[in-house]
Every structure is written in C-alpha cells, then in structure tokens.
Amino acid sequence: MQADWDARAKENARYYVQTAQESWSDDEFFASGEQTVREQILNDMINICQGRPPKEMRVLEIGCGAGRVTRALANVFGEVHAVDVSGEMIRMAASALASHPNAHVYQNNGMDLTVIPDNLAGTFDFAFSSIVFQHIPSREVIENYVREAHRLLRPGALFKFQVQGDASLETQPDDTWLGVPFSDEQVVEMAGRCGFEPRHRHGAGEQYFWLWFFKQ
Ligand SMILES: C[S@@+](CC[C@H](N)C(=O)[O-])C[C@H]1O[C@@H](n2cnc3c(N)ncnc32)[C@H](O)[C@@H]1O
C-alpha cells in the first residue's frame, strides 16, 4: 500500500486524493477539503461534539493524504492528529499544515495507529476517515483500524468513517485502488467485535457507505 500510494503521490497526488479534477490549484484543492468538512462535520456537530466546544477537542484523521481535509479540520478543532501510509503524502500534508501548529501528521505502517504517542490513548474526542477504507483491499486491516480508533477514543466518542458499500464490485487482494466492500450486516458485526455501537449508517450498497460508530 505504501509503495502504490507513494507512486500515486509522485505522479499526481491531488488527482489521486480527489479524482473530481485532474489538476487542482491550491485554492480549489483546499476549498474541496472545506466542503468535505461542511458536508460531513459541520452539519453533524451534535453527534461529533456532544456538547464539547470544538476548540477543546482532540481529533484523529486516518488517511489524511496531502492534508486537504486535515487543514479544514484544524480550522475547526483544537488539536488534530492525522496519519497516512504514504511518506510522500505526509510530506505534502506537513507543508500544507505548516501554518497550523495544532495539526500533527505522522506516516504510519498502513495497519495500525501505534505511531500516535501512547499517552494520547483514550483521549481523542472524535475520529474521522473519508475516501480511505474504500481503497484498502483487506477487511482485516480495516477492522484493525476500527479497533485502533476504539483504543484512542474516549468512551462515548464517535468514529465517523466511510467504507465501500457496493458489494457487486470484484476486488482483488493486492489492488490498492478498489477496496473491499462491506454489507450492512458485516459492519454491524465489526462494530460489535470492536466495542462500538453502530448507531447510524447511511448508504448501504453504495460507494459512500457512511458509518457512525460510538465507543461503548
Ligand atoms: C483518496 S486519498 C484521500 C485522502 C484524504 N482522506 C482526503 O480526503 O483528502 C486516500 C489516502 O489514503 C491513504 N491510505 C491508503 N491506504 C492506507 C492505509 N492502509 N493506511 C493509511 N493510509 C492509507 C493513501 O496514502 C491516500 O493518501
């Protein structure tokens, strides 16, 4: 996964992060991250903040790419920690976030969140991942991330994330573009195994299958 995503980052990072356009200006690219935050975060603050002031919240992002959404998250929340398997993507994210000292980016191993400092386990108020798990070919790796998000979140906190829900897709174990799909039954079972309540789910059967997992 690391080699494939490093190669995509070198070829045309912004296109592979957001395929809506082949070429993105800085303004367009980061505006698209602001749009994601408006559509997935700002209109869902009751579930996400649960009464906490956003500026006092610590947030985790899995698969931050070139920092498109991370930068918008750092404008809303007090502290953002973001991981990505690609060192090339992380280099671009670090540059995009140079003027945001409240954002911390880490290259991880593509499987877990052990790169986040141990003393932060159990302290995150919200975790988010968008258009990342839809590219991961292994159900075990995705479930491990869900277990890891559980380890880092405080009790009651939300992990909002998107998986591929279109089960008609033919996926291959070594394809890092077309990730493994999940049925509604599979995500409910995964939530149970990982200690989450799968309180809301939207888009079962579709590419954008959004899940609201609350840590029990
Ligand atoms: C389509 S991009 C989306 C980036 C970002 N979420 C956004 O919306 O701008 C997918 C990102 O997921 C990262 N990624 C893919 N597989 C990963 C894995 N197993 N662990 C961590 N990051 C991964 C890639 O390196 C890439 O940066």
Summary tags:
alpha/beta, binds S-adenosylmethionine, 216 residues, globular
Describe the protein in words:
It is a single chain. The protein is of the alpha/beta class. The protein has a single domain (2-215), classed as Vaccinia Virus protein VP39 (Rossmann fold), CATH 3.40.50.150. The chain has 7 helices and 7 strands. The chain has helices at 2-17, 26-40, 45-49, 68-76, 87-96, 139-152, 184-194, and strands at residues 58-62, 79-84, 103-107, 124-129, 153-163, 196-202, 209-215. The chain has a 7-stranded mixed β-sheet, sandwiched between helices. Helix 6 (139-152) links the parallel strand 4 (124-129) and strand 5. Helix 6 (139-152) crosses helix 7 (184-194). The longest helix is centred in the first third of the chain and has 16 residues, at 2-17. It starts with a helix and ends with a strand. It binds S-adenosylmethionine (SAM). S-adenosylmethionine (SAM) is lined by residues 1, 5, 17, 63-65, 68-69, 84-86, 89, 108, 110, 130-132, 135-136, 141.
Give the SSE map:
Elements: H1 2-17, H2 26-40, H3 45-49, E1 58-62, H4 68-76, E2 79-84, H5 87-96, E3 103-107, E4 124-129, H6 139-152, E5 153-163, H7 184-194, E6 196-202, E7 209-215
Parallel strand pairs: 1-2, 1-4, 2-3, 4-5
Antiparallel strand pairs: 5-7, 6-7
Which ligands does the model contain, each kind named once? S-adenosylmethionine
CATH T-level fold name? Rossmann fold
| Structural class based on helices, strands and sheet pairing | alpha/beta
Average pLDDT figure = 97
Report, as a whole number of angstroms, the end-to-end distance.
31 Å
CATH architecture: 3-Layer(aba) Sandwich
Q: Return residue spans where pLDDT drops below 50 for at least 5 consecutive residues.
A: none
Could you say which overall geometry the principal axes of the C-alpha atoms support? globular
Task: Please report the total strand number as a whole number.
Answer: 7
Identify the strand order in the major beta sheet. 3-2-1-4-5-7-6
